[in-house]
Batch of 2 targets.
Target 1
Amino acid sequence: MQFFWAFVVGGAICVIGQLLIDYTALTPARILTGYVVAGVVLSALGLYQPLADFAGAGASVPLLGFGHLLAQGVQKAVEAIGLPGIFTGGLTAAAGGIAASLVFAVLAALVGKSRDQN
Amino acid sequence: MKLDPKRYAEMTRNATPHSPVLKDCLWAFFVGGAICLLGECLRQFWLQWYDTELAGTLTSISLIFLSAAATAAGWYQKLGAKAGAGTLVPITGFANSVVSPAVEFKAEGWVTGVGAKIFIIAGPVIAFGTLASWVWGILYWVSTKF
Amino acid sequence: MAMPVRSGDTLIFSTPPVVRAWACAGGKKEAEGPLAVEFDLLFSDTSFGCGKWEKAESLLQQKCVARCLTKAGLDPDQVDLAFGGDLQAQCTASNYTMRWLGAPYAGLYGACSTMAEGLALAACFAAAGFARQALAFTSSHFCAAERQFRTPLDYGGKRTTTAQWTATAAGACILSPGGGQAGVPVTSVTFGRVQDYEVHDINNMGAAMMPAAVSTLCHHFADTATRPADYDAIFTGDLGRVGSGLLHDQMRREGLPLENHLDCGCLLYDVDTQQVQAGGSGAGCSAAVLCAHVLPRLMDGRWRRVLFLSTGALMSQTTYLQGESIPGIAHAVELAAPDTVPAKKEA
């Protein structure tokens, strides 16, 4: 069942993004930024964790989950070390994803090349 | 010319073909859902050995690796041209937005091209995501004082 | 030689200069399009094996210009003056082409209007006797344009329905003074005025450029006392489907309905099947359609009189991000069949 809900919830979050693309003038870059910020807000309001428990990767894989990760990280760090945690918590939690993106990007640049779209 | 900008904006709106919303949404739903399903499979795999938090991180890293490979092979662009938000919104889309400029701007040098332009699309996501989490951190810290 | 006449914005040549030779080159998508058989050169490897798209565009230009000179029977040092440009910042593709060619060169930036702009200027210089062999050329390259104006080529994104596909194509023409020379006469040219009707959508260039096309068409018809029906065909460069629809509406409103209009952006590709959204664009699009499709039909008399417009959108990535609207321009060149060629029905 967890697999089914991951598929449905993840797909539904993507459909919301598609509706924003089709019905508003928002560019993809703005939608992504909005998703991450919205993830932080939803997490802060305590709304995202229940969804993550319910849908697993369906909630954590979309970029809303990235915002949730940042918010949770900050919260944990503030609990552990107090005020300095507002600076260290977010990126610490997101470090794996960001570092992996950077490392694999440079490796991809090493082996890949720009290609025509046809 | 018998035309004013306001009227022209209206003409342009009327002349703009509508996006095939239903088709777009079906693509977004199935491709986005499939990527999340793949994520769930990976997560269950990593959960065999690790706790929830680490399994989550490893899931992200695995998906980012797959996205980087698909981007370098030219497949992610082809899928994205059809799937729209289905490939944009998952973390694989974030990875694609980091990998594609790295590959693209290799011609301008490793430091001035790859390094400098790597966050040309993903930069705002990290910047505003971090800023939002910082604001939440302050609010949360204040709330712990009461 | 009789002096050219100026009427309004239009220069009418009493002794029309002629387009003596022309050539066009295209890439893979163009080779899959409806005009493929009419191209001089087609390349399936659009990078020319060099790994740099900007350099690839210049190589595409060079091959096109070389073919044009061969067809004209000219050596590079016989070119008196070249007018050319492209979409790259500082027009570098053309600059490197001219480094290779070595002829005197006046660089142009007219965005997608460059072909008509170059053709019109070359016609003026040829008509005035300032150049015996004037070269006009331009190009665009999908990959060079994408990485400069939009997103990396491997970025997965969906295009909007109004977006247009930058052609990987080049066109080149040699113009000479008229009076005996074989070639397609340029009977008049109309340089356009910049028009801005506050379109801000960078993915809807057709709409941004349409008012410029209307403005130039209206000036041209008034200046030459003609109507659309006086031409066998009226070509616009790269308004695409959306812009063309708007053009028809507006010209009807101006009392000059266009029954014989064709858009280069809708000719170069099969818009329904080639996934180019609203159609083709890019300086090379109208250049290639001119050299592949229009000039040959005039040369053998299938058409007697044609009006060729190229339209350009004159924004930059910077002004767009700063919220400026997109100004457009259109230049018109009136072409005729050679006097010596009898009228011929299109097969």
Target 2
Amino acid sequence: METSTMTYVPSADDLEVITREVWMSFLDGDPAGLVAGGSALGEDRVTGCIQLSGMYVGAIMLELAPAAAQAAAAALFGMAPGDVGPVEVADAVGEITNMVGGNVKSMLPGPSTLSLPAVVYGQLTLPGVQMVRRAELTWRGQPLAVSLWRQGG
Amino acid sequence: MLSLLAMVIDDSSAMRLILGRIMRGLGFDVVEAPNGAEAIARLESGIKPEIALVDWNMPVMDGLAFVNAVRKKEQWRDITLMMVTTESEQSQIVRALAAGAHEYVIKPFTPDAIADKLALLGVLA
Amino acid sequence: MTITAGAFAFIADLVKQMTAINLGPGKEYLVENRLASLARDAGFRDVAALIGRVQLSGDDRLRRQIVEALTTNETSFFRDRDPFNALRQVIIPDLCRKRVATHRITIWSAGCSSGQEPYSIAMTVVDHPLINSEWTVEILATDISQEMLEKAKSARYSQLEVNRGLPAPLLVRHFERCETDWRVVPAVRNLVRFQQLNLAEDFELPWIDVVFLRNVLIYFDTTTKIEVLRRVRRVLRPDGYLFLGGSETTLGLDDEFERVMLGSATVYRPRGAGVPEIPTEGAAPIAGPAARPGLGSRPSSLAGSPLPGSPPGSSLAGSINPPGRR
């Protein structure tokens, strides 16, 4: 199945809008909290990933600086950042990735299936997929990025 | 006065926490399940919630399968089923409603959105 | 920059009094953000100073500006539900009986803001079993803000906006996905005509059957409120209907309106219009389990035994006892 060249591909702005809605609903009520741009992610990062199959084959990744991942888990669980552990971080990053991913999926050719999220510490390499979009953002001084990947590119 | 019971079904413990907090804030008692199969098991054990908030993508038994299973049983007909999920395509919402879900909340949502939907359903005055 | 708990409580109280909207805890950032530009434009050092002034003086105009800044985007689809249930169950059937000669119904959403109200009215009309191709229903949506009108005309709403107040079956029936947004489908959109209009100035409009003037009067001082109601009454048909916002009333402002209860909905009619026929078994409410089998009985705004009417022209007028609630 060929991907039609006429199909709308979500823009970096779209990825940002979706991420912003998730942030504002659960993590940070301040609309100015999440800003576009900022510094790049370092090697240390937490990566959440959901994969897509069906009409669209690829993945959506959410990468956060470790401090941002911790702060996100703290916000989601209503805990102090110092109290969150790897289990909370994995759950939180997984669910946030699920929410971002599900909303991005609705803009892609369908029907497609969303996998359960996977969360790793570090950078994730998915063989056979190419990045097609990336939005880089900053939250409370920490970098994060949302990217859309497609099989075959 | 007896509180109403809500069942929150989601594989994310963060989401169960958030929804649980919202529902308690609205006056419900809350029971949780991490997937559709465990939720069915709880229903079969005699727990009778007024409403179930159901995620779609979960391991073992997903939310759509859960809705189908609940709507098949006469003794569970009174349970209001509200999907709370990131699946946001029109076709998915249609599928869920056709399977018997009464309402549908797209993630991300605000607490107000949940309260609104409950009011629409008549579960909350 | 963070305002004190006392200042926030004062503002929350002010908003609650004027609009019945609750600014719960966690909304401090909203107050700070929304009032920042107002504070700046009004020449205050910061938001705290702005609030301080309002606390000290009785500055009415500033109070209203603050309330407006904080509540403008609090609109949602089918806001408060009751008026739309009343529209569907009582008013449209009543007008279908009364307007047989013209087969025309005109509804005005005054102060339509970002459009959720006129589109909610349009959805109610489109779904109504009595409205067929023989009927012309026109929905006029006006606002003073050209910016708001443009947004309303675009008929595009975010995921967060469509999550509010809109039953899922209506979402899938009357909206289509449009990138990250949802857009009202043409069949519903085409019922609505948008026009800029300033209620505080004289205007010309055709005869109107139903006016939605909800949470608009709060932004005016008393004198202007009276003028606005007078202008509205001038274009409202003698047997027409006026909806105000939840915390609003014509009492003390205009004697020529009488209050009528339609189930749990409060509506105002020109004096002498009386009470419309209330169906004993009406069409199901906009959304609600009452229409679905197997869900047990739940309160529905107008279901139940026949409601006693009351003599037309009685003051504090035509109130109908609401049906017993569960």
